[in-house]
Specification:
alpha+beta; 4-stranded antiparallel β-sheet
Length: 170
Amino acid sequence: MITTIILLLIASIGIFIISRQIRKFSAERPLPECNFKIKDLHFEVDDPIQIARFVVITRNRDRYFRDFPIAFKFYSDEKFRSKIRITYKVEGDDEIETIFDKVVEFEDTVKTHNYYINDVIVGSFEIEIFTNTQYGRPKIMFEILQNKLCHITKNHKLEIVFPGYTDKVN
């Protein structure tokens, strides 16, 4: 009986010491810096339908990402009503995933949609934003948020302003 208690006590102390060392090791290791690039923004316009596409590249060649947090903010200088669908496709995967598919009515309050991409991302992913606007001119801000695998040292944002009737299309 006493030997059992002593063995349990020794095992408990051992588990406590090991868990403390693991926590200390993980706390001391700083996160590497995130290296992202947002590029190749181009538009397809066939009023009232407008499509914007861009690519997010991760320059961390030895890193992969999972549960990758991104945010979209919907706003404008004027009121708008638009059917907005946002999709993404990871490099090397043919499956297109939907992030957002709703009608957005903007009057004066910015609407935000946060999303976690749970695919494994290595290299890059492409985002497509489809709008079918009934009135107004929507603006959408895309932003990469802080994640658990690397530290973001600068803002990674892209403001998407769809071209109007007289604007030049890329």
